[in-house]
Amino acid sequence: MKLAVISDIHGNLEAFKQVLADIDRSGVDDLICLGDHVGYGPEPEKVVRRIRELNIRNVIGNHELGLIDKEAWDFFNPLAQKSLSITRKLISSGTLGYFKDLEPYLTLHHCRFVHGCPPDDIMTYLFEVSNFQLQGIFQAMRERLCFVGHTHLLKVIQFDGVKVVQRPLKQGTLALQEDMKYIINIGSVGQPRDGDSRAKYVIMDTDSQLLDVRFVPYDASATAAKIIELGFPDIFAKRLF
Questions:
Q1: Which of 40, 81, 117, 223 lies at a CB distance of 3.0 to 4.6 Å from 124, suitable for a disulfide?
Q2: What is the pLDDT of residue 140?
Q3: Burial, 188: exposed, middle or buried (Cβ in 10 Å; 0-12, 13-18, 19+)?
Q4: Could you tell me the pTM of the whole model?
C-alpha cells in the first residue's frame, strides 16, 4: 500500500493544490492529514472545504484546537494569536464545528498518526522530548510507525529496542528497517521552516518499506502577498521563503 501523509497546510491553498496534484500523479492508495489546516495562511476556509470534499481523514492540530479551546489559545504567542484572530474571521461556523469533531490521533494501516507527539499529544513539539522520554514512548507504542507534524521540520527518529537515534530527513527515498520502530516528522505543506520554500510531505510504501520524501514547488509569492494583504504579521509571509 502507498500511503501519502501531509501536515501543516496552514491555510496555504496554493501549496495544497500542488501537493494534491503531485499525490494524484503518484497513485497512492490513501491520504492522511496531521492537522494545522489553518493559521498563518490566507485561505483557511478553502483549504478545509477541499479536505472535506475529498474526505481526507485527519487529526486535530494545535491551531484548530486554539480556535475552539480557550486553554489552548493561551499557549500561543502574541503573533500566533493575532494570526488565529484573523483566521477566525475567515472561516465559517461549519468549519469550527468540523474542528470540534476531529480526534487527537488515528491508527490506520498499522500506523499511528498524531499532530504533535505520540501517543496523542497535540501541543508538544518533538524537540521538547528527550531521548529518555522517547524510549518510553516507543516502548508503549504498539504501532511500528508513527507520523507527526507540528515542528514544520523533516526528521526521522528510530528505536531498536534499546537506543534512540534522531536524524534529519532529506528529499528522496529512505529504506526503513523491519526491526526498528519509527517516529517520522513529515514537515509542512504550507509553511516549511527549513529555508526551502517547496511544500513537503511523504509517501510511505508499506510493502517495500520505502519512505519517499517529496518536495513540491508552488507559487509562494502569491501566498505571501495574500498573507500581507489580509493583515497577518509579516513574519508568516517571510517564512515561506
A1: 117
A2: 97
A3: buried
A4: 0.96
